[in-house]
Amino acid sequence: DAKTTQPPSMDCAEGRAANLPCNHSTISGNEYVYWYRQIHSQGPQYIIHGLKNNETNEMASLIITEDRKSSTLILPHATLRDTAVYYCIVRSNDYKLSFGAGTTVTVRA
Amino acid sequence: EPEVTQTPSHQVTQMGQEVILRCVPISNHLYFYWYRQILGQKVEFLVSFYNNEISEKSEIFDDQFSVERPDGSNFTLKIRSTKLEDSAMYFCASSELEGAYEKLFFGSGTQLSVL
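Output (structure tokens, whole complex):
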């Protein structure tokens, strides 16, 4: 699986958009970009995934650069309940889902 | 929304004892996983299971560990002789491959404490 690089932590104001960057410069053509999050002591939760195109669902938006070497997860209106560790993971279906250290996002009132 | 259920939520055991952690995956899912997370560390893959056999396992998943799907609904992780370093949160996950991508659903975990 391609390695990803994320900032270790970031703060966000409640009600504002949170933009979480991820670098994956060694991504290959059949690898998807997945985002999961882990709220304290809970199991990881799927957020969104993408291959080439930008994606949006009820939780977030995913913007993938044209060269696919980086992506940004956008939480449009962060709430206190969005405080969590966010994991950017790149993988193909041939391999297990592997979690790195992620970005600890703290949403402040 | 359907969910993965794990029991018990907490398990305390003595070193050397056997423990069985139980999971009920989402009913139409075909792929099952165990992960663990030692306090303050990353979520680590242990094993994946499909079609009644292990499809992949990590170096952590040694001979002390085994998995089973005994009755078509439960998915269990057995640790034969627990060690202190087995203390961790254990997460079960399941998925149904959808086209070319896979979305894993995780349970809320079993906190295992080995004394």
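Residues 97 and 103 of chain B are 7 Å apart (CA to CA).
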